[in-house]
Write a sequence for this structure.
């Protein structure tokens, strides 16, 4: 039986893009937790954060990841801060194949600025904030079973590496 593939890393590390490609190649679904919460709440993440606060948002995120893990094996893409929540990585490691998509803070900042506004990166120096997030979260990200570098690597090449890990260590077979 295949295990869920959980992708962790900074905002802008490529989790959503790579998650879609991996799910497609494995013939399964992808659960993008931020996207799920946006659809459920009918508002962008920054608004959910602003209205409910980070603590409530993290609670919703944990619940959504737990619900995803209760489903058929798939690719799960939590938000960048999920991994730093107490016990989440340890729990996920037991039932899932966890892969850290690693890139430098500067790269993550550049990529993040192209997407939706990220509540934890608002302010005068998003690059400095991203460096702080990396420093805070990397010890948690490193609890993943495997690391895949996304620095200057095209998304499809990263997805190929993640698929190889899913096949070697997660019980997935080529489709």
């Amino acid at each position: 039986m295949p295990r869920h593939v959980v992708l962790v890393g900074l905002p802008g590390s490529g989790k959503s893009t790579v998650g879609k490609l991996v799910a497609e190649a494995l013939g399964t679904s992808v659960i993008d937790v931020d996207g799920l919460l946006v659809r459920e709440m009918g508002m962008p993440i920054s608004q959910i954060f602003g209205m409910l606060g980070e603590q409530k948002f993290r609670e919703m995120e944990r619940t959504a990841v737990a619900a995803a893990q209760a489903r058929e094996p798939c690719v799960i893409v939590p938000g960048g801060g999920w991994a730093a929540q107490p016990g989440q990585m340890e729990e996920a490691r037991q039932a899932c194949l966890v892969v850290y998509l690693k890139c430098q803070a500067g790269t993550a900042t550049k990529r993040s600025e192209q997407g939706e506004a990220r509540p934890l990166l608002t302010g005068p120096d998003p690059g400095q904030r991203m460096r702080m997030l990396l420093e805070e979260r990397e010890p948690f990200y490193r609890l993943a079973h495997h690391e895949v570098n996304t620095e200057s690597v095209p998304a499809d090449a990263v997805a190929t590496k993640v698929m190889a890990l899913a096949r070697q260590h997660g019980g997935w077979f080529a489709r």
In short: The chain has a mean pLDDT of 91.
